[in-house]
Structure formats: structure tokens, C-alpha cells
Amino acid sequence: MNDELKQEMERLRAEIERHNLLYYELANPSISDYDYDQLVLRLKELEARLEGDERGESPLERVGSDLRPGAETIAHLQRMYSLENSYSAEELEQWCAKLASELGFFPDLTTELKIDGFSINLFYEGGELRYATTRGDGVTGEVVTTNIRTLSAIPDRIRHLSPIEIRGEIYIPVADFLKLNEERTANEEKLFANPRNAAAGSIKLKDPGEVKKRHLNAIFYSVGHSPGLPAQRQSELLAWLAGLGFPTAGQFRVCASYAEVREFCDRWENERYSLPYEIDGVVVKVDELALQKRLGYTAKSPKWAVAFKFKPEEKETRLLEVQYQVGRTGAVTPVAILEPVYISGSTVSRATLHNEDEIKRLDLHLGDAVRIIKSGEIIPKILEAVAANRPPNAFPVGFPDNCPVCASRLERDEEGAISYCPNASCPAQLQRRIEHFASRDAMDIGGLGASLIARMLEKEMIRGLEDIFQLDYEALAQLDRFGAKSAANLKNSIEASKTRNFDRLLFALGIRYVGSVTARHLAEYFGNIDALLRAGEDTLAQVPEVGAKIALALKAWSGNPANLELVQKLRAQGLRFSFEQRRESESLAGKTFLLTGSLENHDRKAMEEIIRSHGGRIVSGVSAGLDYLVVGAKPGSKLAKAQKIPSIQIISENELLELIGR
After folding, report:
1. Nearest 5°: CA angle at 239, between 236 and 245?
2. What does the pLDDT look like over 144-168, one tens digit per residue?
3. Is 114 a catalytic residue?
4. Which phi and psi (to 5°) does residue 485 adopt?
5. What is the pTM of this model?
6. I need a labelling partner for 379 at 20 to 30 A (CA). Which of 344, 394, 447, 571 fits?
7. Residue 31 to residues 169, 193, 343, 407, Cα–Cα distance (Å)
8. Could you say which of 1.10.10.60, 3.40.50.300, 3.30.470.30, 3.40.50.150 is the CATH number of the domain covering 79-309?
9. Which of 6, 44, 98, 114 is catalytic?
10. Helix, strand, coil proportions of the chain in percent (round to 5)?
11. Which residues contact 218 (CB under 8 A, 6 or more apart)?
């Protein structure tokens, strides 16, 4: 191999290592699976030209690691491997022929759908789930037991007493993934690239309650350490796992020839979009477990299995225009408007361009022919502009210097990627800002929903947040399908909102990165808005749940005169800008509480405030660190989980009130 090819090989190794880190450990890939696979193929081709002792250490011989520094880990009882990939029908046929040649006959093969999820290992002993780990580096996995217990699909007990490792994939259904990204868009958070990354990012969250909200699911298909396993074949194993209560993919087939394998692969490459979850290929395995053992493993992969990877569908369409959307916190997002094209199971007419840098990278011009894919087969993404087909005198797409709605000069964020409109009174932000301000966890103004807000903005009844508190209720009652009673109810709700504590108001203001928990910490730490506004970045960063990023956002917000003017206007309307601790006693100090079901005499928010007022702390999920589960009518799955942890005391609403002497 000449020096130029050796340099290419070293560059590819470094690039693959970087993408492994982004994919496995950070769950934040920067290229598609297909593009990554092409890098791997090229490196394989180059390494094949070297003798064994010349190759040195290659990333192709190691399982990608998802282990995070400092995380709790447990060694697998039996190693977890990665699958070898095939990228074409010809490669798959060659693999089958090589297998038959080595065995001396064509074995029965099971073909299964390849779930595009996050690998998980469950260990059961005495029929009980003892722990759950990620694949990690194949030898050791990261412990995620508490989060796994939030998945209703995973049984806590099974009818099998011998120790056993059950293995499968954690995934997020497509519909829930789309909803999750819609919520992140509304909150102006970074979107997940695909369902696999959403699942990987979710299973390692610190808050089990947040994990539960992600609607994760699982499919199981194999075992690791498994003495006394009753199954003799992979097809029998799938049926046995299903009988124990594990979800399995019902779409599998035992094939006696390559033609049958190819038929299964072709069918599901065409029908993959009919499934409620993402698949990125088909896994082909030797069906007989004894033959699997005989064939063994390479350093990275089983010799008895291969993954046939589907290619992402690409289409060419035309860029008609670029629109710029302004979000609640002022983030300006460019959106490509495309000539509609059917791709990967649906018609696409829009694709996000993320930011100014993406527009420059693509060198887009209006009228360009563009090649698109669905990233992760879900999110439309422009791959490139076909410059050769560019119309004469095509106008280059630029990014505006000023807000497309209010004309304020745009500012770049601290990382230099996103442009923001700094004007808190920008009309484009106002609808969403008011919706957020009135939402249940913020000021909880019942009756002030999105449709009414839109009508009031259209009639110019409100021009800013402060106008909520000086509405003309007589004029409001004249709105079509509203009336005097609705106006009176809204007035009562708005007046009641003035009593909300400072932390609720701080969250309602919609400061970038300041969620309800962070707002509570800030309110408790500083006590009032004036102390908060005076604080420097270093002081802000010391507050729990804050840190440098949020501190910088707070200083940017408080440095805007329009925001300071809004504070004064709201203060003049009687809103509470001082935090009231409301500590009645310390009778619950040091104890943690969680509520489930409908309480008889209090709504959940009110009861949580009562608990806090007596020194108790609210947590979001069931774990060994929970002291009390307060149960109301029609409790959810939290009750069943708490009943399995002896240290948790399960009490009623009345028993809780007795604890605090009510």
C-alpha cells in the first residue's frame, strides 16, 4: 500500500472513531447511518490489502461503546457483539454461500426485522429483574435499571428461575417520536435526528419521570448467559420469550434457501413504513442454536448472523422558497418549501434547514434541484443542491439580518449557531409567549387557550403580556361564541393568577432554558426579581440546575430594556415578583413524595405545595429513594412499581394530611 492510501486509511480510522463517539456515547450523530456504513466499507477495503501484523488496532475490530465517564457499570455475563453488515443482495448471497460452504449444507435461517433502537441487556435471577444495562463496550454495560422499570412492556417477574440475560432493543414508536420533536420544537430545544437517538438519549436520563413521558417500548430477540434454556432454535427462542411476557417482533420467517431470505428482505424493504416503529434492515441468523455455537464469533461479530441493511430512499425535487419561522424565545429557523414529492411512505413539501450555517454549507439557490432523504427515514433532510441543474441567474438563498416579522436586528446565540430576535414584543413570538404564560405549570389561566389568544391578537385586544391583566371584558363578551359568562370566568381566572408564586411567574416569562424546576431554584435562591436581575453570571451559575449556559441566557434576557419594561408593567398589575416560602413546619423535612391518581380534596399542584410547605420534596418517579407514594383514585403504574420496593410507604391523601397534623 502506498503512502497516500495509508494516509487515507488513518484518516478514515480517526473519522470512524469520532462518529462512534457521537453515535454510541453522545447519541448525537452528525452523518446518516448509510454514510457511516460507506466509511466502514472503504476502510474494510483498505485494511484487506494489509497483512495481519500491519493492520494494527482498527475501530472495525471493536464494538462501539456507549459508556459514559463515571457511570455505574456491570460486566455482562456473556459478551454482547455487533452484527456484520451486508449492503446489497449480492453481499447477502455471498454470506449465505460462505456459510453453506463452511457447514457443508445450507442451514435453516431465521429472518427477523432489524429494529433501529438501542441495545439493552436484562438480568433475571429467581424470576426477578435484578438489573438492566446498556451494551456498553460489549464486555461491560452501563446500569439503567431504574429507567427500564418505567417501561410497562418489560416484566419485573418471569416464570423462569435460572439466571438469564435477556437481550433486545429499546425504541420509541414513530408517532411518539414525531410528537416528542414537535414538543422540542415548541420549546426551541434541539431536535432528535431519528428515533434511535431519541431512545438512546432517553434511557440514560437522570429523571425516571421524564423517561416515562417518552413512551419508550422494547422488542426482545436473544439471550446471553442462559443455563437451562429450553429452546433449541432461534425460532423457538422467539416463541419462548413471547410466552414469558416479553414483546417480540412477530414478523419473522424460517428460510430453507437464499431465495426465501431474499424474498423476506425485499418484502420488508418495501413495507417498512407500515410498521409503528423504525427498522433499518433484516437480521439473518442460523436457526439452530447448536450450529451457532459451532460457528462461533470473530473479535466483533457472530459468524452465524448478518444484518442486511436497507438503503435510505432518495428523491430529487425543487426548492421553491425559504421561509423563516420565529419561535417563542425568538429563535429564527429557516424552512425549505419544496415541490411536493413522495418519499419513504409520505409526501414531503417542507424540510428544516436548521440555521444559517446549513444554508451556506448547501449553497442553496431558489429554484435549485435538491436531493432529499428522510433522516432516520422520518425527518426530511436536504442532502445537496444539484448545481449542474441550477437555473440561469438563480438567486442565492441568504439569511436575514433582521427579524422577518418585527425588523429587529437579529443576534447569534453564544454558540454561534442560532439567530434570535431579541425583541420580546415581537408579534411572531407573542402568540406562543402568551400560550406559555397562561399554561398550567406557569400562570395557569384557565380559559385562555390558543384559539382565544389568536382571536384577541387579531382584534388587537392584546399587544403584550401585560395586556392580559387589563382586558376589556365587555368587548370580549361580544366575541362570537364567547359571551358574558365565559368573559366573567376568564376574568376570575386572570385575577386568581396574580397570586401565583414568583417561581411560577419566572417560568411563565419564557426565558430561554429556564424550565419550571430551574425557575423554582432561582426563586428560592434569590427571593425576588430585583436580586435575580442584579446577580452576575458567576453567582447565577452557582444556583442548582443553572450553570454557565443558563446564566448567560439570564443575563442576556435581563440586559434587554424591553424585558425590564415588561417586568415593571406586570409588577404594576399586582403580580408577585417575590418568592413566598410558605413553610408552615418542618414535619416532612428530608422526606420525598410522589403523587399518583386523583386526590379527593386537592388537585395535584395544590397538594405538592402543601408538601413543600412542610419541608417535603417532590420527586418525579418511583425509585428506592422515594419515601412516600400518595395514592388517590385510579392510580397509575407507579403504585404497582412502588409495591415492589419495601422501603416505600404507600399512603392515602388523608394519611398524608395526618402526617402534617391537619
Report:
1. 145
2. 999 999 898 899 999 999 999 999 9
3. yes
4. -65, -45
5. 0.57
6. 394
7. 22, 10, 19, 35
8. 3.30.470.30
9. 114
10. 40, 20, 40
11. 117, 120, 151, 153, 154, 168, 169, 170, 171, 246, 247
